[in-house]
Structure formats: structure tokens, C-alpha cells
Amino acid sequence: MKKLTVNLLSLLVVTAGVMTSCTSNDSDTTNPSTSKFIANADDFKGTITEGEVVLDASKVYKLTGKIQVNNNATLTIPAGTVIQGTGGTASYIAVAQGGKINVNGTASKPVVMTSGKATKAGGDWGGLVICGKAPINRISGGASSAQSEVGDLTYGGTISNDNSGSIKYLRIEYAGALFNADKEFNGLSLFGVGSGTTISYVQLIHGSDDGVEFFGGTVNTDHIISIGNEDDQFDWTEGWSGTNTDWYGRLDYGTGNRGIEADNYEFGFANTPISNPTITNLTLIGPGSTANTTAFAENQAIKLRRGTKGIFTNVVIKGWATGFDLEHDETLANAGTSLKVVNFKIDSDVTTIMKGKTTAVAPATSGVSATVNANFATTSATATGAGNGVGMPSWAAGWATGF
Questions:
Q1: What contacts 330, CB < 8 A, 6 or more positions away?
Q2: Taking all residues of the chain, what is their mean pLDDT, rounded to a whole number?
Q3: CA–CA gap between residue 194 and residue 319 (Å, rounded)
Q4: Which UniProt keywords apply (predicted)?
Q5: pLDDT of 195-209, one tens digit each?
Q6: N or C: which end of the chain has fewer CB atoms below 10 A?
Q7: Predicted structure pTM score
């Protein structure tokens, strides 16, 4: 009887252990999400209000509407996940202040956000919008907040190191859906995003507006590729001041504007904090110096205006009507000190290296041509740009496309 009791107890212990083990494994591998939100791959939309939602890389997610990640919620996207937007301006991913997005791609398995249409084109869906609590300068002094141009979310504040998550090895394709002539998505829109956020190895390709635009904030980036976006490949305004390395931009697909469009703030050229990023290792390739002026109306490698500052180091440009165009009194005053290009190389085919223009004086419609401070730019025959001159950088292999 004693032996039987021991055997029964042993059996119960083993059975309990097996049940506990199975329950633990199931929870860890098949249901890692901690949110009540259900991610329906065939109809991916809705608002995540709490916990963490982890997508399944074995599924293709049809983004039929808006996915919004609210305060204290997280969206995690594993390596190799594909998300297909199908709803124009209605389909986009937005991260609100206090929310987080973690894109965990790898060089061999990037995360891809793309069009779900059979025939793909720029503007098929919105894009990725992130709103943080870092300073902007819409009101001088940096303590203001505002509503994002797309997504209608609050952004801006006083937390310079605000953290909106981590993005690594992400490709955003065919984004930039258009509301009207003055309002459309970018591939990646960063509104007041803080330096606690990681943005690394991201490609924006064939969007209908800018590749990436910074609206204030302090976020830093590295290894960014912007190809064939129909407005500017890179754009900033509202006091952005990030530290950046390895940017590659190229106009393509028969239309586009500038390599970089850089502003301090449209309605306050001296508003603080002043836009003041640093960009080290930059390649910008244009459509050719004699490209069609209708398709490529603003054929400039870098447009610097409205009081922006910035330091560019190790720059290679090719195929532009104008290399560097500085506009407005405040911008020209920064040239040679807090606004300069160190070690740049013209690969070929740039008609005008640099030019300047003062602020317009009413009733004149444009400013007067001005000489740019000679200390604004220094040349270097050995500049390598993003790593390989105008060629595909080695760090783009395996995960980026369109070269």
C-alpha cells in the first residue's frame, strides 16, 4: 500500500510538471503578446491601447486601415514580417506619444512595409508616423506641442531623450498617399521624436512625397537609404537636431525634387531650438544636370533655407543642376560656422556648385543673389560619401533594393 501511494504521488508530480512545462512553452512561443488587441492578418487595423502586440512573421498582414499605438502600448514586428497597405490615406501605422514600435529586422530578413496592390505605385498607402515628446520650435523656445500633419496626433514637448522604440532593418515601399496638394504622407514621418529612439538601417523607396521627414525632435539615425521618392529624399524642419551617419539618396522613377530640403521653421526663421543636425558620410545622386525641368523642377542636391544650421562631413554628389543652394539672411549668416560642408567631392555632372539668395523684401517676390561665405564648403578628392562614392554601399547588401 505504501509503495502504491508513492507511485501515485510520483505520477502526480510528473504529470503536473509536464502540464506546467507545456503551458509555459505555449505561452512563450505561440502567444508572446501581452495585449488584448487581436492582430488580424487579413484585416490589420485598430488601436493598441495597452500591453505589447507581437506580430507573426509567418503571416502577411493586410493593412486595411490605421494601426495606432497609444501611450503605454507597444507594437513589435519580428524579422521577415511583411505588411501590405491597401487603403490609400486610410492605411498607415501611427505611434502616439508614449507608445513604442520595435521593428526587429535583420540584414537577411528585413521587415517590409509595402503596397498590397497588384500594380504598385507611390502613394498606394500612407506610411509610418511616429510622434514623440522631444522639443520642436513652432513656438520659439521649444516647449510647444502641435498636431501632426498626418495622423492628427500630438507631438513635441521637453523630453529630449524620449523613447518611441527601436527600428532596425526596415524597408518602406510605395508609401506617401495624398490627401491634397499640401498634405500627404512621407515614407517615414518623425514628429518630435527623441534621442532615446533607435532608427538604423532603414530604406524609403518609391514614395509619392519625401522619403523621410523630421519635424523637430532630437532623434539620431544611421544607415538610411532614400531612393526614387517623388519629392525630397530627406527633409527636415521645426528645429530637428539629430546626429546621423551613412545616408544614401538618389532620385529615380522619372520624377522628384531635391536630395535634401532643410529648414529651421517656415514661419519663424530664428525660432529656437534651431535645426542643427550633423550628417557624416552622405551620397546624393540627382537626375542629371540637364534633366527635364517639369519632372525635376527643383534639381538641387541640398537646399538650405529659413535659418537652418547643420554640419555635413564626407559628402559625394553627382548629377545635379545645383549642388548647394542657400536661401534667406539667417541661413547665409550661419554659412561657414554653424552651417558648413567639410570634405565634399563632385563625382560628375554638377552645373553650379553653390549659390545664395537673400530674404525677399516686400513687395519683391524673391531675394537678391548673394555670395556664400567661402568657408562654407571644403573639397576633398578622397571623399567616399555613404561608403562607396555613388555606388551601392556595402552595408546595403542583402536587405535594400533599387540599386
A1: 264, 269, 270, 306, 307, 359
A2: 92
A3: 34
A4: Signal
A5: 999 999 999 999 999
A6: N
A7: 0.92
